[in-house]
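Worked example (supplementary).
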Amino acid sequence: MPEINLWAKDGYLSTPDGNSIYFWGFAKSAAGPAQLPGPNIIARQGETITVNLHNMLAEPVSIAFPGQQVTVEGQPVQPQYKNNRLLSFVNYAEPGGTVAYTFTPSHPGTYLYESGTNPYQQVPMGLYGGMVVRPADYNPDVPEYKTAYGAGTDTGFDREYLLITGEIDPDLHQAVENGKPYRVSKYVPRYWTLNGRCAPDTMLMDHVDYLPHQPYGAMIMGLPGEKILLRYIGAGIDNHPLHPHGAHTRVVAVDGRLLRNGNADLSYKRFTVLVGVGQTYDQIYQWDGLGYTPGNPIPTVLPNLRNMGVGDAGWTMWSGSPYLGVKGDIPVGVVSYNEMGEYYFMLHSHEELQITNWGEFPGGMMTMVAIYPSLAPDIGVIG
Amino acid sequence: MAIVARIFQAAAGFLSFPGANAIPFWGFTEALADKPQYPGPLIEATAGDQILIWLMRNYLEPIVEPISITFPGQENVLVRKIPWGPFIYEPVKPQYAAGKMISLTNYLDENRDILVEYSFIASRPGIYLYESGTNPEKQVQMGLYGIIVVRPVGYNIPGHPNYKTAYGADTNSGYDVEKVLVLGEIDTVMHNNVVPNVYYDMLDFKPDFWVVNGRSFPDTINEEQISSQPYDAAINCRVGQRVLLRIVNAGFQNHTFYLGDLVGRIVAEDGMPLKTQSLDATYEKTGTTLGSGQRIDIILTPATPGEYYLYDREYQHLVNNDQFPGGMMTKINVR
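After joint prediction of all chains, the assembly is encoded as:
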């Protein structure tokens, strides 16, 4: 039986504008850093899993697994009371204590896990993470069985990414750090995160050593025509309308439930998905291109390079060429971060205030979808 | 088909919230009943019934501005008015004064009119709001709203194919336990200004209490009682029973109603069943976001005994006076 250990700890988040923010998060080991979001939990449909929560914070902490039937010591989890007052939606661990949650996922899909104790504070503080349940027949080596919801469900994918939305109100975090009271009604987010990072940090690779508490990147990379599975999770307490520029996604499942009744396919295409709080969306993104190759020229005339505003900020993701896999000239003085003629499409919250870091654009809930001419097979693997 | 006739008045009253002083509000009341209600009186009907609502002048405590009722989702609502007419039914329409729209529908002017009568055929089963159509940015928030449940013919006849269904046979909407949950919010500053008729700028709207069926947790799980907040929100069922939650967002904010650890099947949205003869488009969710004025019917079947909390996943709404637990939260007891 797979066993996962999570330690609830504190730490400091880093934002691109140089702020360092106290937070609470789950760590993979007693000595490891608390991380935002918590470690990805990968489970398998029908396989019983135990999650041991070790609480190293100074107040009770718990984990709720929405959509799962969870037991603690053989009994279903239950709300907990202290002095007749609701303290926690589920069984919790006292400071220094441990609680073991056991469940057997009955459905494949994407799920949130989050604190069920003082959730108005502990969830925004960072005690949340994502869980992926593989279908019982999942086999990544056989394309037919590399699916989100099982063979024959039209949910096959080539690469997959988890994108967990969140918000940060620095005042809340500072009040908690200093043990000061915090009025929930004053909640005003100033940072908006994907996988715990604000843009442009979202576009960095996983596990970069200068973001020890934010190990997960949010850059989406794939090849033309590939099926890219985007798993959105709304972990904050605000809704966020996310879309990738220039392409639709096909929503195949919500809250870990396949959108299909018998033979009826209920999946649907969306340009923008309103990521509701506590909810999950499994989508397949496919960029097929428009057939642009040097042998099939674009039937428009691009403006003269001197008339194009390439890299107003001094840098660009553009390759200098409209053709995939081709790099061309860019204006003198502009730095291109384009590696090999890949295409970049922004993916962001359409509440544009949220693509700032405390009001300064660019930042916040924004990343890129990058279509590469070639890409290593180990890119786009959730670990 | 029957006629469901109700006589309503609008009246001012007081609401009670945990840890707060009595908060003034406006609510609908059955005529001659002593207390206005929040939400308004529940109207129950069977598909095909004619619903007649008389909105009567309140001579004792008028709220001193025009009032009206709109019925979102109902077609062909007719109106007549005493004593100034129209005397024969005509379709409701927006009302203007000096070129300015002052009401989304025909209204009762308590200085002139004695009553205004709204009439329509409740042709489709489902769950519907009724709410003020006059100064709705103020009057709806002040409490002038309620719920209409329209049930399919035969819902109460054992052996009938529609027996205990929300939308009729073969719509995946069979249930054993039914509960209406109305979501809303209260800005106490606004309420305390509106009743003495002090101007309140709705751009300052900032709720401080969040309610299910007019109450904030833990009042939501107290029993039904004779007060201005008569409807409780607690749900009781046995293992394996199908619980039909009819959730209506009567507030101004969006709310994500979360089913705790339970998973529900959404069988209807905005009073429209998702299963038809040709397509079953019902789907399962652990929580769902309702925009203002939206309604949803969810069926859940708890498999293990115990307690589960159902709540707004926007956790900042689970407080009373900034203290957790409170707000838009209720409980289901599974025996």
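Two points are worth noting when inspecting this output. Chain A touches chain B at residues 64-70, 76-79, 85-86, 89-90, 118-121, 123-124, 183-185, 187, 237-239, 254-257, 259, 261-262, 264, 266, 274, 276-279 (CB under 8 Å). Residues 127 and 367 of chain A are 23 Å apart (CA to CA).
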